[in-house]
Amino acid sequence: MRGDKDLSEIRTIIARHKLWDLIFMIVGVLALMIAVLTFMALFAHMLIEGMPRLSWDFFTSFPSRRPGSAGILSAWVGTILVMLVTAMAAVPMGIGAGIYLEEYASKNIITEIIEINVTNLAGVPSIIYGLLALSLFVHQFGFGQSILSAGLALALLILPVVIVATREAIRAIPLVIREGAYALGATKWQTVSDHLLPYSAAGILTGVIIGLARAIGETAPIITIGALTFIAFLPPSPIKDEFPFLSFDWLMAPFTVMPIQMFNWVSRPEEEFQANAAAAGLVLVVMTLAMNAIAIYLRYRMRKNLKW
Hints:
Elements: H1 2-50, H2 56-60, H3 73-104, H4 109-121, H5 126-140, H6 147-171, H7 175-183, H8 188-215, H9 220-224, H10 258-266, H11 271-304
């Protein structure tokens, strides 16, 4: 009798757990459907309103007071240049810091404090980075309201993301890889450069592109450092006809970016500018999805080459 009673209690517990699993699954599916349908509705509205404005002239025209002739030339050129500075600043520093914290740093209280702060910095509101960049780069270093200041501000924003992604990618490599390299007489740097970095490149690259995809849509830090909302000219070209064929004058040029251009158009009362903002938003979404698609493709290709 006692055995039948215990078996009945076990079956009751299993049935109750299955019921909770079913309830959680239904709630999860509902949450997923609400999120997906909301995104699809917003994207469809933006697509219907902005698609008629997409044309070659829209990409090759400067902003204008007349909505029918306004374009995003200065916005997308500024976005690309700002993202170039962001990548050049954040990627080397982020990967280097991640490697140091994971492979070289001593395990003491100072390292733990640094690790906790790096993790927490990933959740700091972006406007805080804008205020820091305004004080440090614009006023203290004298870079002004330039592409360089904007790129460095966004680099600060994604730096914790790159560091955390680098550490997680290196940590995922099996310990036997390190032990095998050390057993063959490799130094720590040879182990890192010849084994850890190549094997973790897919994870690091994914973190970098996701960080850049976040930075390309950020508005608060760019507004804080004083990005212009109306620019009818382009920065100086990075390539010259004379030796050394490279120019860095564009780093100190005033700029605008896609989110700022959209913010400017949305704030205007004319309905035609709302269509321009929807078209610019469509371009920005496509750029972000393209970056994520590249990250997924590269991660897939790199992981196919892993042999462990």
